Protein: non-specific serine/threonine protein kinase
Organism: Cinnamomum micranthum f. kanehirae
Amino acid sequence: MWLHQDGAMVINDADGSTIWSANTSTPEVDRAELLNSGNLVLKNSNGRILWQSFDFPTDTLLPQQLITKGKRLLSSIGPGGFSSGYFILYFDSDNVLRMMVVLVQRQIQFLASDMGLGVTRRLTLDFDGNLRLYSLNESTGLWGISWEAFAQECNVHGVCGRYGVCVYTPKPMCSCPPGYEVSDPADWNKGCKPKFKTSCDSQQVRFVELPYTDYYGFDLNYTQGISLEECRKICLKDCSCGAFQYRVGFCYAKGELFNGRRTPSFPGTIYLKLPKSQEVQEPSKFNESEPVCNSSQGEVVIGSSETFTNGGSNEYTHFFWFALGVGVVEILFIVTGWWYLFKKQGMPKEGYQAITDQFRRFSYAELKKATNNFKEELGKGASGAVYKGVLNDNRAVGVK
């Protein structure tokens, strides 16, 4: 790095060629300073800042560094890489912080898990599209995650690229749906590509069922209160519809297939449009033995070969036995409940009933008679008044 006499600060390559310049060619520049905050500044002889690196963030924000309109965070292509990545964080004209949150006021606050003074921190838009706050462990010299915008990596938009599906197995990994293959095994942001040529002939296509799966967003239309068959026909007639999601009367025809994710708790199903000539055994399931994410160090290692496998009904076998077990438990509860009700009806309704530990349960009429209509109050406690009473066998008692 050089600071020339004309005020230009440049970085030269080994051959002497300029690869970066601060565009500060003015003789007013007197010196360059690297402040304790991490801000690199150019000052004049009076100490006034003429240029500062804080005005040109890359993928990281340091303490006291602001992100405002006209500025943006751009992720890197990968861990340790310096090429531009695929994720940008910026304010649009509507004061919306794109990709992460919608601002409802001019200031928004996030709290780190180790909130407080004395900790060195940095805010980084990582290569996987997640915004993370890192805190420095002074004793080890390592950075640890103290806050992140998405605790679940599969919720990051586009993390597995076009057509890709983020799967929890139980940790997240990327995969391709049936009929698709990975575009670039070294870069999952490029997603998947079809193995077939797209056809608009409705007689030549079919739908493959992907349970618990969703491609969030990019809906061509939304229809409520229709059947699965009606939803299928909507997508079948539209050449631009690549799939549809259906759940309990709700139909979502999908155009672009981005933000794919699969979770066992998701109640919907994606029906993927494929040519009939494309061989796919159903039901399709995920291979759960591929590389997964490692979020403990803030590095998402989402990368694998095609992880949908064709055929296999093991998943549905497990589901059948699980449903059967739940049904048996419910039947036992019902039978036990009916037995308890019939037994209770057979007990005497007046007087008292003997409990297993020989305590008595008195009716309101018996207590009223024993206390002479709650005449003599002995005292009051946290649970109410206590009245003097005499039972039929002449024993004195206290009644609450």
Helices lie at 228-237, 314-345, 364-370. The longest helix spans residues 314-345. Residues 100-108, 286-318, 347-358 have pLDDT under 50 and may be disordered.
